[in-house]
């Protein structure tokens, strides 16, 4: 079987293609095989091919003939049928089933699909039975230069330090071409610069951009716009091209020194300016940016190097001049400084370009100010004995006005520091005197503040602390350090130390304390005890004999005289209590009371206390019982709830006025016990029986109020058992909607004189008269 392929591209390819399709044998095209070969070798197909080619983007009026298939089994009749299957079979590629011609029906694009794999087979047209096994072949799309180069990552941005040498790497660009890089020069790219010369260059094949000029200065031009072209076909004419842009920025290097805007600066400052306050700013400009523009300032010369300092403002890079020490117009009126500004970060590549620093002169004029007084010393320390006399001079402070006018000074004590007013000061000369007695043992130090004020300008004030130390004098007698109570064993031995006592003295002598101990003159020959001075300034109490007995004497009192070594010496007498106790054989105190002798039957002190408590409880019960019996025998004259004076009845309904006699039952005010004319009192027991007259029977309604009140008044005035006070019934409710409010005197002011009765005249003629009566009464009281 033979296959024929026509390629419309190159004759060479046609020759190669036909080389693959040469018949395997001569003559008939079928390979003659011997019987031995048929046994040893498998049978081979009658057709052999590798691949076919078709030109991409080819278009014409007729379909493109790609190639022809033919088998040796075809005798030329129409019994052979060719079948094509695989990629694009029937749509892109169509085969003539009779002749075996393969045609491309569509325009092909290699960049879309570069090759197609198909399968060919020859079958019997009548029976569709395969005459030979199917064979696979490839149709490749032949490339043409139909795609221009593209910069996928463009546009580009790159940086390079300024002042770089020629050939310094900047960046690399990359272009891609969709054409076949293997076949022809369609994808062979060459790079060139369209814009950006003569500053930069590009390698034609690697696309590496480099600097082309030396010493490019950022301060002159910072940014460059470069256009790069990529052209295929090796850059020859007819090739396609694509472009991209590269923005190249020069980064800064420290190639410029700082420079002061002016060579001479003038500043003025008041002499009373606070320390650390800024008095002026200087500026050294640097054409560089960022870290390369940072400068440090320093004072390198001048007569005020120790008076002023200069620091750098981190935000503005200014030099700030501040005051380090106080200024004095009267001492020095002007200063001249030489200030230097130097770069902090210096690039060694440009060190030969000159010093990266600059200097300027600063002149500072000090202006006069009204200054406060100045004390001769910042602090004062004075000493005074605690027995110093009142009004004695302790010490003196001095101050002066530093101004040329020299105002007089007046002194005073800040009383917030001397609340007890223990000191005074002479306003003219500053002498401090004692106002009250001092006591070193109460307060050893006194800290006061002296104020100096200019007489011509009271706003100019200065203060100085004065520490006054109170010196000690021997004015306190020594005494026992604590209240000592010694215990003496009954079985003690003669010469035994009973107690060791120590003394204290509130005074503080320079050489320390030294105490002398002695007994009272009348007790020098004490038969029971003696004393012994120890080296550590303490005193030992010793027993002279043994055989002490609690039953004979339980407590001994030993007065001791304690004297100090001061001048004059001070002494005091302290009494030591010595208690006789029962001790064990080892000398351990067990009991210091006499219960063993008082309770021979063996009762303990706890049992005795319990018995005594029971007796006291029984006595209390008896007293309570007698008291209750006495109260029970007293007759009850009247019940508490029947006393009208203690029952307050409140009616919350409004009366009808002065002429309404039906709104209130006057009989309610009558005491039920007083109906028969007898009014007993429970608070006072009457000495004689008073027989009042028969009272009027209560009438529920229609009672004459005036008559009722007069009867009650007569009974009260003639009752000898009535106490000298009245029972008050309070009616504090005026009624709803009343404009007058309450007229109760109990709710009025505490003093009648505080009331103003003029408002009663607005209520009508009757109240106006009432107000006049009260006003007359008040005026009579004042008269």
From TrEMBL:
Keywords: Calcium, Cell adhesion, Cell membrane, Cleavage on pair of basic residues, Glycoprotein, Membrane, Metal-binding, Repeat, Signal, Transmembrane, Transmembrane helix. Residues 71-151, 152-260, 261-375, 376-480, 480-602 form the Cadherin domain. It is a single-pass type I membrane protein. It is found in: Cell membrane. GO terms for biological process: adherens junction organization; calcium-dependent cell-cell adhesion via plasma membrane cell adhesion molecules; cell migration; cell morphogenesis; cell-cell adhesion mediated by cadherin; cell-cell junction assembly; homophilic cell adhesion via plasma membrane adhesion molecules. The keyword DNA damage does not apply. Residues 739-754 have a biased composition (Low complexity). GO terms for molecular function: beta-catenin binding; cadherin binding; calcium ion binding. One of its GO terms (cellular component) is catenin complex. It comes from the Eukaryota. Its main location: membrane. Residues 739-758 are annotated as: Disordered. InterPro entries: Cadherin, Cadherin-like_dom, Cadherin-like_sf, Cadherin_CS, Cadherin_Y-type_LIR, Catenin-bd_sf. The chain crosses the membrane at residues 597-626. The keyword Transferase does not apply. PANTHER family: CADHERIN-23, CADHERIN-8. Cadherins are calcium-dependent cell adhesion proteins. This is Cadherin 8. It comes from Bubo bubo.
């Amino acid at each position: 079987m033979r296959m024929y392929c026509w390629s419309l591209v190159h004759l060479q390819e046609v020759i190669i293609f036909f080389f693959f399709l040469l018949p395997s044998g001569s003559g008939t095209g079928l390979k003659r095989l011997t019987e031995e070969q048929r046994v040893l070798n498998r049978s081979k197909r009658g057709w052999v091919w590798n691949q076919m080619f078709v030109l991409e983007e080819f278009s014409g009026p007729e379909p493109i003939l790609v190639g022809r298939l033919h088998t040796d089994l075809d005798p030329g009749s129409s019994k052979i049928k060719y079948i094509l299957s695989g990629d694009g079979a029937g749509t892109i590629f169509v085969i003539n089933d009779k002749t075996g011609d393969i045609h491309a029906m569509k325009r092909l694009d290699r960049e879309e699909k570069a090759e197609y794999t198909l399968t060919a087979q020859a079958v019997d047209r009548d029976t569709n039975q395969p005459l030979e096994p199917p064979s696979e072949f490839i149709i490749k799309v032949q490339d043409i230069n139909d795609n221009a180069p593209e910069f996928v990552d463009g546009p580009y941005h790159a940086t390079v330090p300024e002042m770089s040498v020629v050939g310094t790497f900047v960046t690399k660009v990359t272009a891609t071409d969709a054409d076949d890089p293997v076949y022809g020069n369609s994808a062979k790219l060459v790079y060139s610069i369209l814009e950006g010369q003569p500053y930069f260059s590009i390698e034609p094949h690697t696309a590496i951009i480099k600097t082309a000029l030396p010493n490019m200065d950022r301060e002159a031009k910072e940014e460059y716009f470069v256009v790069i072209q990529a052209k295929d076909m090796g850059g020859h004419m007819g090739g396609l091209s694509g472009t991209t842009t590269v923005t190249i920025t020069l980064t800064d290097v420290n190639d410029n020194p700082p420079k002061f805007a002016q060579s001479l600066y003038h500043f003025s400052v008041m002499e009373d300016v606070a320390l650390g306050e800024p008095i002026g700013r200087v500026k050294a400009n640097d054409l560089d940016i960022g870290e390369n523009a940072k400068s440090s300032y320093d004072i390198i010369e001048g007569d005020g190097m120790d008076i002023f300092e200069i620091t750098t403002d981190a935000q503005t890079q200014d030099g700030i001049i501040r005051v380090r020490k106080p200024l004095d117009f009267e001492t020095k009126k002007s200063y001249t400084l030489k200030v230097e500004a130097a770069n902090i970060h210096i690039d060694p590549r440009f060190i030969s370009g000159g010093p990266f620093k600059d200097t300027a002169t600063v002149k500072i004029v000090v202006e006069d100010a009204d200054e406060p007084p100045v004390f001769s010393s910042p602090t004062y320390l004075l000493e005074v004995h605690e027995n110093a006399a009142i009004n004695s001079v302790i010490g003196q402070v001095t101050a002066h006005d530093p101004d040329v006018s020299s105002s007089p000074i007046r002194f005073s004590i800040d009383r917030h520091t001397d609340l007890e007013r223990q000191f005074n000061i002479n306003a003219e000369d500053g002498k401090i005197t004692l106002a009250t007695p001092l006591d070193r043992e109460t307060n050893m130090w006194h800290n006061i503040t002296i104020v100096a004020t200019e007489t011509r300008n009271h706003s100019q004030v200065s203060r100085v602390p004065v520490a006054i130390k109170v010196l000690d004098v021997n004015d306190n007698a020594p005494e026992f350090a604590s209240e000592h109570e010694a215990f003496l064993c009954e079985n003690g031995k003669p010469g035994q130390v009973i107690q060791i006592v120590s003394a204290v003295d509130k005074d503080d002598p320079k050489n320390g304390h030294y105490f002398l101990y002695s007994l009272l003159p009348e007790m020098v020959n004490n038969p029971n005890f003696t004393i012994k001075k120890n080296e550590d300034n303490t005193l030992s109490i010793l027993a002279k004999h043994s055989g002490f007995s609690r039953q004979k004497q339980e407590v001994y009192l030993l007065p001791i005289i304690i004297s100090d070594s001061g001048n004059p010496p001070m002494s005091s007498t302290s009494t030591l209590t010595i208690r006789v106790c029962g001790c064990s054989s080892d000398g351990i105190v067990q009991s210091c009371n006499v219960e063993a002798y008082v309770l021979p039957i063996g009762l303990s002190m706890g049992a005795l206390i319990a018995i005594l408590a029971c007796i006291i409880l029984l006595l209390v019960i008896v007293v309570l019982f007698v008291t209750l019996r006495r109260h029970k025998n007293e007759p009850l004259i009247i019940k508490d709830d029947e006393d009208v004076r203690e029952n307050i009845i409140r009616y919350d309904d409004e009366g009808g006025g002065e002429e309404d006699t039906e709104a209130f039952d006057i009989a309610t005010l009558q005491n039920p016990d007083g109906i028969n004319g007898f009014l007993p009192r429970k608070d006072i027991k009457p000495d004689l029986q008073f027989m009042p007259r028969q009272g009027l029977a209560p009438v529920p309604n229609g009672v004459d109020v005036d008559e009722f009140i007069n009867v009650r008044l007569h009974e009260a005035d003639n009752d000898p058992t009535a106490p000298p006070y009245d029972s008050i019934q309070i009616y504090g409710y005026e009624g709803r909607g009343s404009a007058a409010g309450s007229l109760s005197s109990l709710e009025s002011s505490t003093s009648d004189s505080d009331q103003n009765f003029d408002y009663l005249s607005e209520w009508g003629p009757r109240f106006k008269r009432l107000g006049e009566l009260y006003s007359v009464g008040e005026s009579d009281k004042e008269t």
